Amino acid sequence: MKNEMLKFITCGSVDDGKSTLIGRLLFDSKTLLEDQLQKLKEESKDSENLEFALLVDGLQSEREQGITIDVAYRFFSTDERKFIIIDTPGHEQYTRNMVTGASNADVAVLLIDARKGVLPQTKRHSYIVSLLGIRDIVLAINKMDLVEFSEERYLEICKEYRDSVVPQLPNRANFHFVPVSALKGDNIIHKSKNMEWYQGKTLIELLNDLEPFQNSNSEFVFPVQYVNRPHQDFRGFCGTVAGGNIEVGDSIVVLPSKIESKVKSIIYDNREVDSASTQMAITLTLTDEVDISRGDVITKPNHSLHISNSFKADIVWLNENGLRPEEEYIIKIYSKTANCKISVDYGIDIHTFQKVEQGGLELNDIARCTLEIDRDLVLDEYEKNRTLGSFILIDKYTNGTVGAGMVREILEKRRPKRKYTQQDIELNRFIRKFYPEWNCKNIEEDV
Amino acid sequence: MTHLKQLESESIYIIREVVAEFQNPAMLYSIGKDSSVLLHLIQKAFYPATPPFPLVHVDTKWKFREMIEFRDRRAKEVGMELIVYSNPKGEEMDISPFKHGSEVHTDIMKTQALKQMLDKYRFDAVFGGARRDEEKSRAKERIYSFRDKYHRWDPKNQRPELWNIYNGRHNEGESIRVFPLSNWTELDIWQYIHLENIPIPSLYFAKKRLVTEYRGTKILVDDDRVPEELAKKAKYEMVRFRTLGCYPLTGAINSTASTVPEIIDELLATRTSERGGRLIDSDKNASMEKKKQEGYF
């Protein structure tokens, strides 16, 4: 099997025909199994017109039981690809759910009801997927059968979207428009016979062709996840390559300590390989015995990554308990955990896209914030490297995940609180001079 | 990267994350194809070292005989510690799916046994091979599934999972179940078994086997505990199993697929969902949800 994997989030309400669209994709791609199909036929009122939404819905009972349904995952394949549909049901927690779903998506499929055109929710959904850095947004103009498959109506909606939504989005993206009828199957998998005026790709052709998300920074980035030390003679640094490539013999630098070494071997797939690239889960060994632990980042000497304890980020608040600005929160960013304090610069109203003045953060709020961390982190902007630029916030009292954020701007390092005495400095000089193999950092540089 | 290699890397990432952040992890080894794939990924995650945690099997005493042989052999080959646990009270009472029914048997020998085992060994993270495509209610399952100190799943208190940043913080006594195969489908599992040549019990391959009708499915006459009236009607048929569990509760399917590629072909052609053959799932509607809340895996 040569095919890659593509994850896409579907946005829209039940009224837009989202469940019908997902059901249609599963049905037309022949993912449905006979027993599921049989059940669908029994449950549909009319066995000629199957109610595809039944395949996906069925969440009502769970809602009644009070079960949180934030994101549901469904799977189907074509000859080209494996697809994971990330579906975010529910209305009340929409921002939280969509942010959660979009964080793992390569592509977003937004549904627009052809009768209604661009609605306020279309803008909200577009804003969120753009905020999360999704670069390919598919606008599926649905229910074309209800507007007599009118080309004029389709073009009108495309124009409305381009004029009123696109210019206001926080990040650049590619927009792909396709007129469909999920209910009748037009332009989903099969080309529509009712819309011969449309020369573009069907929805599935688009999804087959779009590239999975890639970081724009192609430098080698390797956050150390786990140190594998089964015995004295082996010390492997395990992790997943979060950008770029590495080869045996390459010079590397460990951040934030800035210790340098060379790659001795790369282990992947139960054997030694010559090179490794992004997304591969590997183990590195180095030519020198250096002190590296979980949370350190290995990169190459001429890197452009930042080391700082302060940055600005867009934060989405995910919890019923709002932000308490006087409290410290735990930040988890790649494999690194630290303490941080958060202050809100301004909020963003996702209905109007306007900045609003606000001091706190409540559930579903989005705001630009300044964070101060109690130690140095290796960082990159979210647009450049998703791994080094995304984080979650954990409440110390409840252990819950209360927020999620994207690094937008890395600030000058704040002065460390620690003051060194003359004795500290002298001792540090002495050790650096006579015991260079200890790789002791220069504390005079640190102030 | 092929989708299988991508799934592999994502699963290895999850496995390493758990082992780095938890004190006392273990893998719940159920001997089936998903467990076999998970074990293979765990080995890869720590290669060249032996994975630094034990395998645990909750033995209901009604597993297929071949499963037990396979379990012991694999644990030896892999070099991981194998912990086998059965509910002593249930064993003493001779709980049987034939006599006590599947619901009682599953509760006592599986759910209760699992909780006892977790209390005894105090694992704070337990790997399992569940997948989201298995069943509608699993579609929304998290990768890290939190359990309180009574091993209950609290659906209202699950943490959102963004990107691949997992929050493993927990209080003393709380634990997580981890599902690194969440995004794999049944077809992915079989393709990967083929690609990586992963050993699985031969019960998955079609063979002439002695089977008998029981509660609408064909079950294997695996030992002399099968009630006489059932054993009397038994006859040899070309069958295989799509899932493995307790033999009286696991339906065989008629098949001639005796190699992995033939199974994949069959899967693409026959198209019924794999849990169709599990008696335990048809007990009650929405049963999976209920079982999960009670602590069933």
Written description of the protein model:
The complex is a heterodimer of chains A (447) and B (297). Chain A has helices at 18-28, 34-43, 53-56, 60-64, 94-102, 120-131, 151-164, 203-209, 386-389, 422-434, 443-446; strands at residues 4-11, 72-77, 81-87, 107-113, 136-142, 174-179, 221-223, 226-231, 234-240, 245-247, 251-255, 259-268, 271-273, 275-277, 281-286, 297-299, 306-317, 329-333, 336-349, 354-356, 366-379, 390-394, 401-410. Chain A is α+β, with helices and mostly antiparallel strands and 447 residues long. Chain A folds into three domains: 4-209, 3-Layer(aba) Sandwich (Rossmann fold), CATH 3.40.50; 221-299, Translation factors (Elongation Factor Tu (Ef-tu), domain 3), CATH 2.40.30.10; 306-410, Translation factors (Elongation Factor Tu (Ef-tu), domain 3). In chain A, a hairpin with a 3-residue loop joins strand 11 (251-255) and strand 12 (259-268). Chain B folds into two domains: 3-187 and 286-294, HUPs (Rossmann fold, 3-Layer(aba) Sandwich); 201-282, no CATH class. A six-stranded mixed sheet of chain B has the order 3-2-1-4-6-5. A four-stranded antiparallel sheet of chain B has the order 8-7-9-10. The model of chain B is unreliable at 277-287 (pLDDT under 50). The chains are: A alpha+beta (447), B alpha/beta (297). At the A-B interface, helix 2, strand 2, strand 3, helix 5 and strand 8 of A face helix 1, helix 2 and helix 6 of B.
